[in-house]
Give the backbone structure.
Amino acid sequence: MIEQLTPLEAWRRLQEEPEAVLIDVRCHLEHEFVGHPVGAVLVPWKEPPTWQVLPDFPGRVRGSLPPSGLPPEERPLLLICRSGHRSQEAAEALAAAGFRHLANVVEGFEGDRDAEGHRGTLGGWRFHGLPWVQG
């Protein structure tokens, strides 16, 4: 089962569990130009122009994790994207590959669109004032 966490719950988890890793599954452009949570490890799930799932996502996650005494499949991994949809798909792929401690950040980095079609006004990592950087 993939746990569903709000951005605030995810931030708390990262503070309380030193082995936990936040994986940003957005594309390189989003990560760089829109911004990203401080300390997030970028492992894209999809990239433009095709927006197809990139090959061997679980292997790329394994290879991107910082050193730890735990095997990659036992690390607590929190996945984030723009709004929580791609990260859920990526978490499901990791679960199928044997990763056991997975959480999806449900509001993502930017949250859902508001009535005017704008992101960042209804929820998301930035909306909650959590640490992030751009560039």
